[in-house]
Design brief:
Elements (H helix, E strand, L loop, with lengths): L1 H8 L5 H16 L14 H5 L40 H20 L1
């Protein structure tokens, strides 16, 4: 009952819905693209030899627990699907995303 009341009275946003629709549209347009080899598991010798998993950086072992790596397919530029509103908890999510973007830019320079 409390969860229902909380959801009913929480600030509303359709940002996640819009993000999902945009992601589905891109998937429809681009088809099934391979993720970068860096993030693919290499359970066999052949997969290791062709570069699967090579250069992977485990976020939890990186400074600030954030590698800043790009996981988009090579044939696709980085996309932004989710754009949080300034209302409710989404404003905190926006701050977190901005923090990660700042870290990524710092690491690209250095």
């Amino acid at each position: 009952m409390q969860a229902c009341l909380y959801c009913a009275t929480a600030p509303k946003s359709n940002a996640a819905y819009r993000a999902q629709k945009a992601a589905w549209q891109i998937a429809k347009e681009t088809g099934s693209l391979m993720p970068p080899k860096t993030i693919l598991n290499a359970p066999t010798r052949l997969m290791k030899d062709i570069g699967y998993g090579k250069g992977y950086r485990y976020d939890h072992e990186e400074q600030d627990a954030f590698s800043g790596d790009d996981y988009w397919p090579e044939e696709m530029s980085a996309q932004t699907f989710y754009e949080p509103s300034a209302r409710g908890f989404e404003s905190k999510i926006a701050e977190r995303i901005a923090h990660w973007q700042g870290l990524r830019k710092e690491r690209e320079k250095g």
